[in-house]
Amino acid sequence: MKKLLALLALLALARAAASTQDRAMRPRRVNDRGPLIRVALMTNVRAITLSSPSGLKVLLEREEETAYQTNSIFCRGDLRAEAKTPSPEQSGYRIEAARTPDSRRARKIADELKAKFREPVTTTYDEQEERYLVFFGKFQSEWEASSALRRLGANRRARIIPPEKPRLIAYEGRKQLLVGVRMTIAPADQAENHFGLREASRLSPSRQSAAPIILVGGRPYRGEISLALNRRGLLDVINTLPLEDYLRGVVPAELSPVGFPELEALKAQAIAARSYALSRLGRAEFDLTDDARSQVYGGVLVEHPLSDRAVEETRGIVAVYQGEPIEALYSSTCGGQTENNEAIFSGKPLPYLRSVACALDQEVLSKHEIRSNRRLGQLAAMPSQLIRSYAMLEVLAFKLPRQPSSQYLSGQITPDELLSWIDRAADLIRGSRGGARPHLSTTIRLLDFGRTLASILYPNQEARALIPPADAEYLLYGFGAQDLPRDARAELALLIREGILWPNSGSSFQWRDPIARAYAIEAIARAIELKKPQLQSAMAVSSAGGQLRLPSGQLEIEPGAWLFSRVANQSYPVNRLLIMGGEQLIYHLNAAGRADFIEVEHSKRGASSDRFSRSSRSEMRLGVEELQLRLARAGIRVGQLRDIVIRERGESGRALELEIIGRQGRSTLRGPQIRAAFGLKEDLFAVARDELNGQMIFIMRGWGHGVGMCQTGAYELAREGYTYEQILKKYYTGIELKKIY
Ligand SMILES: [Zn+2]
């Protein structure tokens, strides 16, 4: 901690030394609101208007030949500052050849000079002195000017005028207030005095506003504004304010407290932004810009109570590595894995900016697990589709053993069993058991089974209306139709067409063979799903503590529930599921309102902590012509494009080196060139071809450089109960947190 304070003091000193005339402007002390930060709001502007409800204190610096002067004034209205750059003639040494109230005399002298020398001659009128001034020449050095002066001969009171310097001119209304090179402006009611603004406030305390602000081009800021002429003779507009005030305008601009309302994530953002700002302290003209080149700062306009609270509750806390504030880089959405700093930016590897997975830690992940104590026993050896059908009928109160043996399943179904199952199916599908039953013998053949099923599915002889003889013939063709009684053909053909019956013996229908319970179970399950699905579906919101969260509310799970995971359009029984949110669920509730059957389809969003970000996964499709055009614009000419090959990927999978192969050559792109050439928003991508449409598809994950903290990931971690410290330590390897003031 001491070391840090010493470091901050050193930085302040270094800053003061950077400009020797800077004495009056030197920021003071590190108090409990942190050191002063200088943020460039604008650079290279010609003019800017400032104001404050309480008026402005203005301190001006003038830089004269020999003396360095300051003076301060009060400005009640709008203050307009302009950079005045010298005209081309004024930018060299000149000779003032005459100064006269007589315009004719001035013209005469000018004409003489023009005739005698080949140097430029200008005449101007000085309103204050009411004199005409005649200037002559434009010389690179004082020496050249004095030799020209000698050539003028014994000319009256000629003198050398040094080149005009750019000037900063301030106006209040039309009135010119001050001329100088640098200006510091503060609200008149600001009690603090960072830069030696000695002018006491002219307002009585009762008239002072709670939070003094200064409007820069209409936008409110805290602290002070300094205007300085830069090397190009234009204005840099710099906001100087204590770090903690600065952060109030950074945190909400970087991580919206409206879109991401999690206090711990905002605190992590506050500490990252604080650490980053400290790591940038002490640069020549200003420490940071107000945009994504450093970190986005929006001043008072973006402040929000929640982000204010995040800043206040972490006041002075900094992420340090070996005692020094870290360069806490962060980006919007890392795409699932952050990247090593040296892979993206030049410079040496930083031990705290390592590639890490943007995901929950194992022990937190298990919170999202749903378990079942059901043992499948011999059912486990059966085809997965049968297991699912069995599970479905069981939860739908069909009479079935809890632990079926393989003999039971492969055994022949009895007439009693069939009637009980068919009754239950009729209940579910039609709400009644009526309907004419075909006569059942002791052995249930496929033919009998099919007709019995048809009796509940098509009780009004729908098959006769829907399947004319030619269709029955057609559907049953090759499936032993000749063995079937005429009056059964339409029903059986319809069952085949609807996908309820399938070959019971290898690839053929053996209508006279007895059928196994397994076949009956699956066929009845298919019929129910087709005619009247009994299962509900929903999108999972999340899960915690062994319960599911659905949009409709919390869902408890039966300890012996059936759990299925869908893979390649098939459901497979499992005894645990991970529910992260976004999964498509099919479930059944028992009489107690608990889920006893859950089938899950994995969410395409995956499980990374930044999965809910809009940029988590995105696609950009480019036609080959458009692609060639973009490459040509980037100066890559390889002829007709043949392939794009990624030669090197970083630890997170980001493309570091890529080769473009064309008919007339190859070209290799590295690092930032890759994004620039294609116009991609991410380096983490795969390229796929859409041959049909002649397009290349860039499938991207994430948004931003992907180094350091992932902001959308941090938000999700906070929602999962991570503290700001846990969040920061996840993304910044090996850091410590220190309160330095
Ligand atoms: Zn991430």
Number of helices: 21
* Mean pLDDT reading: 88
Approximate strand percentage? 25-35%
**Helix content, binned percent:** 25-40%
- Low confidence ranges: 12-28, 195-209
What does the largest sheet look like?
Answer: 7 strands, mixed
In short:
This protein has 741 residues and is α+β, with helices and mostly antiparallel strands. It has 21 helices and 38 strands.
Overview of this protein structure:
There is one protein chain. The chain is of the alpha+beta class. Helix content is about 30%, strand content about 30%. The protein has 21 helices and 38 strands. The strands form ten sheets. A seven-stranded mixed beta sheet has the order 4-3-12-15-16-1-17. A hairpin with a 4-residue loop joins strand 7 and strand 8. Helix 6 packs antiparallel against helix 20 and helix 15 crosses helix 16. The longest helix has 17 residues. The termini are close together. Bound molecules: zinc ion. Zinc ion binds next to loops.
